[in-house]
Protein 1
Amino acid sequence: MKIAVLGTGTVGPTIAAALSALGHDVVIGTRDPQATLARTEPGATGGAPFAEWHAAHGEIEVGTFADAAAGADVVVNATNGAGSLAALTAAGAENLAGKVLMDIANPLDFSHGFPPSLNPVNTDSLGEQIQRTFPEARVVKTLNTMTASVMVDPASVAGETTRCSSPATTLPPKRPWPVCSRNLGTGTSSIWATSPPPAAPK
Ligand code: NAP
């Protein structure tokens, strides 16, 4: 699948790398590709400088927000919440129309110091603003309540987790039903459960 990941902070590169590793064709969107590719300073949360990250992920193209969104089947909004509407406007309403738009952004408001509050909140939300502004996009608010590393590795959170693969997994032998792994949170044990799907009702 062709996926546009809009955002070059911590979340964008994290999601882009994970999707690319799964075999998707990923393009990262940014305001100014040349300036972004020239960045050598560490990311805001201390991550690798973008240039260094991109050198290790050369298969991921970097383009403008519009370049990235234009050819995508799915668009991910991983831009700063205060700039999300501007970023998506730059991406182009026509490039979002009819597509799933995964919105990970939070409209953080630091005007009263740290920790930030949300603005808008309670009577409106960034997700609703995005959906109103781009009515033809299919906005899905998701992953915004966890840190970036957990978005791509939910099993890293202590406690019981269950993950299921897609049917026809590449795990040998190929099975036409999902394969599930259950992590009991001990860090050592996991139980694999496989079963055929229930028979379709007649
Ligand atoms: P961030 O620093 O919040 O956002 C960086 C991105 O926002 C860059 O791509 C930047 O564009 C774009 N941007 C900033 N101001 C803009 C403006 N005025 N117009 C257009 N684009 C603008 O990065 P982040 O920490 O990765 O967070 C991304 C989003 O995910 C945020 O909304 C954040 O609240 C949310 N989130 C983050 C985490 C996390 O673990 N960090 C967890 C949950 C949710 P350029 O590429 O051009 O610089």
Protein 2
Amino acid sequence: HQNRLIHPCHTPKLATKFCPNLSTTLRDPTLAFPNNLTLHTVRERNPAVWAGGSQPWACTPMQRVAVLIPHRDREQHLTHLLAHLHPMLQRQQLHYTIYVIHQTGDFMFNRAKLLNVGFLEAMKDVAWDCVILHDVDLIPEDDRNLYLCGQQPRHLVVGRNFTGYKLRYKGYFGGVTAMSAQQFRDVNGVFQTSSGGGGEKMMSYGRGNFYVGMKVDRPPAEVARYTMIFHDRDEHGNRINNERVALLYRPREVMYSDGMNSCRYKLLSRTVNPLYINVTVNIGTDKEL
Ligand code: UDP
Ligand code: MN
């Protein structure tokens, strides 16, 4: 069961040495977003990717990493993200699998809840050491931005093209973050209930630090750079429930009652595609589930 996601040709026993801290195969990626890019083409360009991921032949990585992408109705973004992530993660010599957590139906999009679902579902495959919570529209620009976890939760987006590569604000913890499985469990996953817009202010940086005792690490600014694929604001009130910041910065009262332990969902399908594992769920409305 544990090895279900490992390519049958891989014989991990051969690689007795751990991978180096910095892979020697990193390079400057080329960023391109052709309109006609298809999953089929991405697949052809990444023959070593299997069941949504890959692992290096030559060495054993210190961590096993699950990339969790919350998704609805952003197919073209997803294609571009996969086109860039797979080559980079292979160059980083990671053992990784990409999960796309797809919300069905017309209810308000709930990024937070999908991430909790993704964590719970991914852990059924492999005891991942590290999870990367990844927006579908952010493309990493620098191979040295390693998709690995550390002693503290890591926020991998210091800057993006749209904001002049500057941090949005000090407590910002959205976009792309890396948490060890232990850290994710320690904070009971992601705060998933809509806070009606006021939530982000309530979850101030200081309180989060105080209660959870975790600080956020960031890679150097010249490394933690992303290109955001342009999109219009979504209609039908998606944004209200789209909790970004509240992962760590929430008061203790809600931390243990609202999160992974209150995450109810109906799993509709789970398919293993070459480029990602698709988990389709009905997460209902907050009232129902
Ligand atoms: N998302 C999605 N479909 C939606 C709304 C959001 O797939 O209708 C996911 C997607 O991964 C996206 C993330 O949630 O990158 C954050 O939403 P959005 O990009 O709208 O927020 P922004 O960061 O641009 O404020
Ligand atoms: Mn976005």
